[in-house]
Amino acid sequence: MTALKSKLAIVTGGGSGIGFAIAEKFVQQGIRVVIAGRNLERLNAAQQQLGELCHAITCDVSDLSSIPGFVQTVVEQHGAIDILVNNAGTNMKKDFAEVTDEEFQQVILTNLTAVFTMSREVARSMLQQGSGCIINISSMAAQYGIPKVIAYTASKAAIDGMTRAMAVELSPQGIRVNAIAPGFIYSEMTAKALNDDPERKSKVFGRTPMGTMGQPADIGEAACFLASDAAKFITGIVLPVDGGNSIGF
């Protein structure tokens, strides 16, 4: 992993959860990290925890017009971008028949369209240096059907396809593109949701061969691997980090 030192990464949604865990693992490897998100207070708190290699810049990815300026600011303040992790996202749990057009489009905007726009702007910078690594965060929802998350599922299935298409187009020019599909990853919110729904909790663990939930750091480790020279011949994959959930029975 030492080859990652002195590189610059952007992690969207880096102020908390999986995004924070990815940023933390990057910093531990000596990578400079720009964490982006809407909540400046949360970003600043994360930056304080992560230390001098971390920098916080606000960016609402759902405001597509702000993304080119954000990327330009990162390059001007911190130099060439080597790694982009498209982690920022949103979810909505609602019965299929009750989801409005506006609600569906809002999830698609944040989880898919913003990933395209951010990737396009960063790729333009990476193309100038002839190298780079883009990591999209997919989901097990793209692997099989999960009820009441139709918009989220649609967005993540599209992320998988876009990852492959981006890899085919950008890899010949030195930019590797991969995705990580997290399974059930521990957070206070996830734990509470499962504890409040014993049937769902039983189903989750019943089809997870490793019999436990993952930790945010597990996704951070996977991102470090995909961003490193250890993965220099890997592009266009969707890597499940799910304890076997996506292949469980």
UniProtKB/TrEMBL annotation:
Cited InterPro entries: KR_dom, NAD(P)-bd_dom_sf, Sc_DH/Rdtase_CS, SDR_fam
PROSITE patterns named in the record: ADH_SHORT (PS00061)
A molecular-function term among this protein's GO annotations: oxidoreductase activity, acting on the CH-OH group of donors, NAD or NADP as acceptor
Domain Ketoreductase: 7-183
Keywords: Oxidoreductase
SMART domains registered for this protein in UniProt: PKS_KR
PANTHER family given in the database record: 3-OXOACYL-[ACYL-CARRIER-PROTEIN] REDUCTASE FABG (PTHR42760:SF115), SHORT-CHAIN DEHYDROGENASES/REDUCTASES FAMILY MEMBER (PTHR42760)
NCBIfam families tied to this protein: PRK07231.1 (NF005559), PRK12826.1-2 (NF009466)
Similarity field: Belongs to the short-chain dehydrogenases/reductases (SDR) family.
Protein known as: 3-oxoacyl-ACP reductase
